[in-house]
Design brief:
The protein is an alpha+beta fold and about 450 residues long. It has helices at about 15-20, 25-35, 40-55, 70-75, 80-90, 150-155, 195-200, 235-245, 250-260, 260-265, 285-290, 295-305, 305-315, 345-355, 360-365, 420-435; strands at about 95-105, 110-115, 120-125, 135-140, 145, 160-170, 175-180, 185, 210, 235, 340, 380-390, 390-400, 405-415. The strands form four sheets. Strands 1, 2, 3, 4 and 5 form a five-stranded antiparallel sheet that branches. The two termini are about 35 Å apart.
């Protein structure tokens, strides 16, 4: 099970810009504050550098090194950059227009590359002020111009396998804006961690309480806490923030133990899940990995009745090896093993967080917005997503500048082939742009 942690990191992040993973909206705000720090001559060099990169997005990029500082290729292999440029051309088309969207600091600017296939590709460029040569380059997910949510629905529906989509108004304007099989429970990957957070909130968790990381909670990545020593002290807040913002699996398992598996299960209906049996037993991530790593164990799990599965978790699953290398690299029992919820279920859970007014929880959800969000247009963006081979979900709680609340959730499952995640990201980026416009 993989989680969508900071989606930007799944795309090419090159040296000077690689450390800057702030949401795009924050970058734009900072840009507005620091635009005066950029000299006109540097601005011209940035525009020239952006056009130089755009011209090299081609089937056969030429003289790539001419646009970059020598220090750039000390950190990044030229061949990887060439392959990236070829891939961008193949997927999105030829760049026909470059527009400057914002400047940041003294030598960084954010651009939109517009292609002949109507893709918009956000790009951040950093140059050496004296030479104008590129020292940093960062591509964010491309998205297509769309006329409305109907286009989003059509693009999602055209993907193979099972899909669901829900964009719905909240806060007194309840009602779907667009939907596609919104009530079908699908494999949501790490988005199930919203239910762990909901249980912590419902039980009035002591966020400042310190707990020791138990050895039994150790899982596989995503996240970093699997590498921390047994007994390391963490506050409940830190574990929860790691679970939501970085989708840390070890933090998640520690919190499931703290909250209680059966407690979570009893409250799934209260949290908005209309098919709670689909989440029983409520798996820890380490249990999931162990089951998926063994064909025999997976087969036994799929054939077992619900109560028999609890017995397996007590008796057999703990003895199975926990190995990332043993995990399947192709879709495997996507429809039978994992965590299952519908888009409607997830939006009810997000709306519960909204209605609670709990700033601790709402702020936690907003640490990582998943994809770039214009914070001027959408001041609040709470997010959780997750993915596995053959499964992906992205779910947002959004408030626009007009104080309209929305939930946007989409899931894609395919039992037959790995997913084109970049295509899914592009579709969802387009949906976010429509919410930013708030014109439904």
């Amino acid at each position: 099970m993989r989680s969508i942690i900071v989606l930007l990191s799944l795309f090419i992040a090159l040296p000077a810009a690689a450390a800057d993973k702030r949401p795009a909206g924050r970058a734009v705000k900072k840009a507005a504050e620091s635009a005066d720090a950029m000299k006109p001559a540097v601005r011209k060099k940035l525009i020239r550098a952006a056009w130089s990169v755009a011209s090299k997005i081609s089937p056969d990029p030429k003289k790539v090194e001419a646009a970059f500082s020598h220090v750039f290729f000390e950190l990044v292999e030229k061949e990887k950059v060439v392959e990236m440029l070829k891939s961008l051309r193949e997927r999105h088309g030829e760049v026909k227009r470059v527009s400057l969207s914002a400047v940041e600091g003294a030598n960084t600017a954010h651009f939109i590359f517009h292609t002949d296939r109507e893709y918009m590709l956000p790009v951040s460029v950093t140059v050496a002020p004296a030479s104008g040569l590129i020292t940093g380059l960062f591509f964010r997910p491309a998205y297509q111009h769309v006329a409305g949510m109907g286009d989003i629905k059509e693009r999602l529906a055209a993907l193979p396998g099972k899909k669901s989509l829900l964009l719905t108004r909240l806060d007194g304007r309840d009602g779907p804006v667009e939907e596609l099989e919104p009530d079908e429970p699908l494999n949501i990957g790490s988005t199930f961690k919203l239910y762990v957070l909901a249980q912590l909130q419902d039980s009035k968790a002591q966020w400042k309480k310190t707990v020791e990381l138990p050895a039994a909670a150790r899982s596989l990545p995503s996240g970093r806490l699997h590498a921390w020593p047994e007994g390391a002290p963490f506050t409940v807040y830190t574990l929860a923030a790691q679970m939501i913002s970085e989708s840390d699996n070890t933090a998640t398992d520690a919190l499931i133990d703290l909250a209680g598996r059966r407690n979570i299960e009893r409250n799934l209906g209260k949290f908005g899940h209309y098919s709670p049996d689909r989440l029983k037993p409520f798996l820890k991530t380490s249990e999931y990995f162990r089951i998926k790593s063994s064909t025999a164990a997976a087969t036994e799990w799929v054939l077992a009745r619900q109560e028999e599965r609890y017995d397996l978790l007590d008796d057999k699953v703990p003895s199975l090896p926990l190995s990332a290398a043993a995990l399947p690299s192709v879709p495997f029992e996507v429809s039978n093993i994992g965590w299952f919820a519908s888009a409607s279920d997830l939006c009810r859970t997000m709306d519960r967080f909204r209605r609670s007014g709990d700033r601790t929880v709402l702020d936690m959800l907003a640490i990582n917005p998943g994809l770039p969000v214009d914070r001027a247009a959408v001041p609040y963006a709470g997010y959780k997503g997750g993915s596995d081979v053959g499964a992906i979900n992205m779910t947002w709680l959004l408030r626009t500048r007009a104080s309209a609340w929305y939930c946007l959730s989409a899931t894609w499952n395919d039992d037959l082939a790995p997913l084109d995640e970049k295509e899914f990201f592009g579709i969802m980026q387009g949906a976010l742009k429509l919410v930013e416009a708030d014109n439904f």
